[in-house]
Design goal:
It contains 8 helices and 11 strands. By secondary structure, the chain is an alpha/beta fold. It has one domain: Carbamate kinase, CATH 3.40.1160. The strands form 2 sheets. Strands 4-3-5-2-1-6-10-11-9 form a 9-stranded mixed beta sheet, with helices on both faces.
Length: about 240
């Protein structure tokens, strides 16, 4: 059996990953693709936790532009993450992977309340855990929720799932000569004002020595290769 570099991971997905071609709404086929990727990793013996955004259902900036209260907009986003968590849970369980949804916003009829020790126990029993409801507080992104939960459960790495191969010094779609970084420090990431991940999340990861791996989740081999210790994507670390 191949030795794994990471044995417990926190996978951060954007809500748009569930939106299909238009990036909006919930596409069941996309949920099934995500589930198949996670199942591959789970079947390798990796303990997997997920945090999923809600950009496919609600973009708070639209409300803020019309004068909406920021806290209200953020709470709506938290509810959207629960919906996304449920569709991915359903896809995973149809694929034969036991899954638990935990929410930072209490709604006992459809999700377990987030309890750190219970989450760790689920992972130890081989269940995939999906953390929803953000941090439970407004003014924090789901990127920050991912960094927080990864630290709490003792994950080996936060894997930021994107549609590009890693972090570049320029937009590779606009500049064909853009250079991709294989490694960079959290401070370098912050000083360059990169937008791949929220700066609060990166700062929290830096303070807790939590590495962040940015890779192309839609590449059929990238995630598995990273877990085997191959050089894939961009590793942000101390």
């Amino acid at each position: 059996m191949t030795e794994l570099k990471y044995k417990r991971i926190l996978l951060k997905l954007s809500g748009e990953a569930l939106g299909g071609e238009g990036g909006f709404g919930i596409n069941v086929s996309e949920a099934e693709v995500i589930a198949s990727r996670v199942k591959e990793v789970h079947d390798m013996g990796v303990q997997v936790a997920l945090v999923i955004g809600a950009g496919n259902l609600w973009r708070g900036k639209q409300g803020l532009a019309r004068g909406m209260d920021r806290a209200t907009a953020d709470y709506m986003g938290m509810l959207g993450t629960v919906m996304n968590a449920l569709i991915v849970m359903d896809a995973l369980e149809r694929a034969g992977v036991y899954t638990r949804v935990m929410s930072a916003v209490e709604m006992r009829a459809i999700a377990e309340p987030y309890i750190r020790r219970r989450a760790i126990r689920h992972l130890e029993k081989g269940r995939v855990v999906i953390f929803s409801g953000g941090t439970g507080n407004p003014y924090f992104s789901t990127d920050t929720a991912a960094a927080l939960r990864a630290t709490e459960i003792g994950a080996d790495v936060v894997i930021k799932a994107t549609k590009v191969d890693g972090v570049y010094d320029a937009d590779p779609k606009k500049n064909p000569e853009a250079k991709m970084f294989e490694h960079m420090t959290h401070l370098d990431f912050l000083s360059r004002r990169l937008t791949v991940m929220d700066s609060t999340a990166v700062t929290l990861s830096m303070e807790n020595k939590m590495p962040i791996l940015v890779l192309n989740f839609w590449d059929n081999h990238a995630l598995l290769a990273a877990l085997r210790g191959e050089t894939v994507g961009t590793l942000v670390h101390i």
